């Protein structure tokens, strides 16, 4: 229903000089989608208030509502081209009046968990990049065709938006920063088994894929597929999902993605998670479930490293410490990390593995194949652990989809079915095995064990044998050639 509209919006932005990449298309579509969503939400709430015989207090002033400046209607409810701003007038209004007004909500909001604060944060972080007022008018009219009224409409829009995020991931070498393959996320959720009433946290939210998938999982009744009560739905909306994101574009996309999935006021903070001192994390800041794919390889400054007991410049190692501290006792985590974490010999990596094994039950390690993350050149593993008990045994699973992964051949849910099934009983197979922690070398806590159950490859032959065979074959060839010469 909406696919053609999305494509038409991209076509408009593609022709505009101010938008040069898939990242720009998604960012610019996001702010327009957000304002259209907000207008639909306000109309819905106004109708509900009228049915209850109450007055509705609008969030957005009348002059700056979508239905006033973006899509004014005439008496018949048709688009009023006479009232609609366009060209330079539209650019001047959006840049000079609309964005400053919306940015001001951050100062006027009562608290950070309100939709008013989110409006202020979003429009304080992004700017209109569309240079032609005629292109902007075309894009706005296309966005106005979209509707957020029913669950079916929201579901389709969320699916299309996810595709845009996936394309962003494919667009640059930092693909994994925006897009974690959804089949992998769903398998991580299947193993951690979140329940209604538990809080779920991602301190490196990116586009909030983990939280959106967890919402879909719980909205459909979790593993038991149980019917949700009104209280359950309220809990899901308000007291379940928590996130932090440092980068402006990812923050905006995370909020829009969660809204499209049905979470109306997302608890996403725009902040550098690693700037928080670990000692300042109180039990009230801890969570039951942590699902995350933190950025790898960054080099964090010395003042950031001071917030952590194990000093390292590796961003992912600092995030892992943050997640271990932020997890409630008995809480469950699934974290994507570079596979070199299992074997690095630097002091920080060794200390971190020791901390993880001694104070958490690292019950499962999922070894992902190359190109699981498009645009990321590193191989990854997923660490599954529970806080508060030492690890006795680690169950490893080597994911092998039986094909080379890539842009046209991504990971599928089917590829992870065996992992999820075998993990329930920590069963051994050709691809899975367990190691006892007591058998590890305690000087380095190296966890990178080769799969002992893999089918043995044919042993390499001794070079002397190969040379002897070549000489024998040469002699046979000489004899055959000699006979042929006799016949000529």
TrEMBL record:
Reactions this protein catalyses: a 2'-deoxyadenosine in DNA + S-adenosyl-L-methionine = an N(6)-methyl-2'-deoxyadenosine in DNA + S-adenosyl-L-homocysteine + H(+)
Signal peptide coordinates: none
GO molecular function terms attached to this record: DNA binding; N-methyltransferase activity; site-specific DNA-methyltransferase (adenine-specific) activity
Location of the DNA methylase adenine-specific domain: 154-458
InterPro entries attached to this UniProt entry: D12N6_MeTrfase_N (IPR022749), DNA_Adenine_Mtase (IPR051537), DNA_methylase_A-5 (IPR003356), DNA_methylase_N6_adenine_CS (IPR002052), SAM-dependent_MTases_sf (IPR029063), T1MK-like_N_sf (IPR038333)
GO terms of biological process kind: DNA restriction-modification system; methylation
Domain N6 adenine-specific DNA methyltransferase N-terminal positions: 6-74
EC class: transferase
Pfam families according to UniProt: HsdM_N, N6_Mtase
Enzyme Commission number(s) of this protein: 2.1.1.72
Keyword annotations: Methyltransferase, Restriction system, S-adenosyl-L-methionine, Transferase
Lineage: superkingdom: Bacteria
PANTHER family linked to this entry: SLR6095 PROTEIN (PTHR42933), TYPE I RESTRICTION ENZYME ECOKI METHYLASE SUBUNIT (PTHR42933:SF4)
Family per record: Belongs to the N(4)/N(6)-methyltransferase family.
Name listed for the protein in its UniProt record: site-specific DNA-methyltransferase (adenine-specific)
Organism field: Methylophaga thiooxydans DMS010
């Amino acid at each position: 229903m909406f696919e053609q509209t999305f494509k038409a919006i991209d076509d408009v932005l593609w022709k505009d000089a101010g938008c040069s990449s898939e990242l720009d298309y998604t960012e610019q579509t996001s702010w327009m989608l957000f304002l259209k969503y907000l207008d639909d939400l306000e109309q819905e709430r106004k109708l509900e208030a009228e049915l209850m015989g109450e007055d509705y207090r609008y969030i957005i002033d009348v002059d700056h509502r979508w239905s006033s400046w973006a899509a004014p209607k005439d008496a018949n409810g048709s688009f009023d081209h006479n009232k609609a701003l366009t060209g330079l007038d539209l650019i001047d209004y959006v840049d000079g009046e609309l964005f400053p007004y919306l940015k001001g909500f951050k100062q006027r909001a009562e608290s950070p968990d309100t939709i008013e604060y989110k409006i202020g944060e979003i429009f304080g972080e992004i700017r209109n990049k569309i240079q032609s007022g005629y292109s902007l008018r075309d894009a706005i009219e296309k966005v106005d065709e979209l509707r957020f009224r029913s669950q079916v409409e929201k579901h389709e829009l969320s699916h299309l938006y996810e595709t845009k995020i996936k394309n962003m991931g494919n667009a640059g070498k930092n693909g994994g920063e925006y897009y974690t393959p959804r089949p992998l996320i769903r398998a991580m959720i299947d193993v951690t088994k979140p329940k209604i009433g538990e809080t779920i946290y991602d301190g490196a939210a990116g586009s909030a894929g983990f939280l959106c998938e967890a919402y879909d999982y719980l909205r459909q009744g979790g593993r038991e597929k149980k019917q949700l009560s009104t209280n359950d739905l309220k809990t899901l909306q308000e007291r379940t999902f928590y996130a932090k994101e440092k980068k402006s574009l990812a923050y905006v996309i995370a909020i829009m993605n969660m809204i499209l999935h049905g979470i109306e006021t997302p608890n996403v903070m725009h902040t550098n998670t690693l700037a928080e001192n670990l000692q300042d994390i109180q039990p009230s800041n801890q969570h039951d479930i942590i699902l995350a794919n933190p950025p790898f390889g960054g080099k964090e400054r010395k003042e950031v490293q001071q917030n952590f007991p194990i000093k390292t410049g590796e961003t992912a190692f600092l995030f892992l410490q943050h997640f271990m501290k932020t997890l409630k006792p008995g809480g469950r985590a699934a974290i994507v990390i570079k596979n070199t974490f299992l074997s690095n010999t630097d002091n920080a990596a060794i200390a971190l593995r020791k901390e993880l094994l001694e104070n958490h039950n690292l019950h499962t390690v999922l070894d992902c194949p190359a190109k699981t993350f498009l645009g990321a050149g590193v191989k990854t593993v997923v660490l599954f652990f529970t806080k508060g008990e030492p690890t006795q045994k680690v169950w490893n699973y080597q994911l092998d989809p039986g094909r080379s992964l890539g842009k046209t051949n991504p990971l599928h849910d089917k590829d992870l079915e065996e992992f999820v099934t075998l993990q329930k009983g920590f069963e051994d197979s050709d691809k899975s095995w367990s190691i006892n922690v007591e058998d590890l070398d305690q000087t380095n806590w190296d966890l990178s064990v080769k799969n002992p159950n893999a089918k043995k490859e044919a042993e390499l032959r001794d070079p002397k044998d190969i040379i002897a065979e070549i000489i024998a074959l040469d002699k046979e060839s000489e004899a055959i050639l000699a006979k042929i010469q006799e016949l000529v």
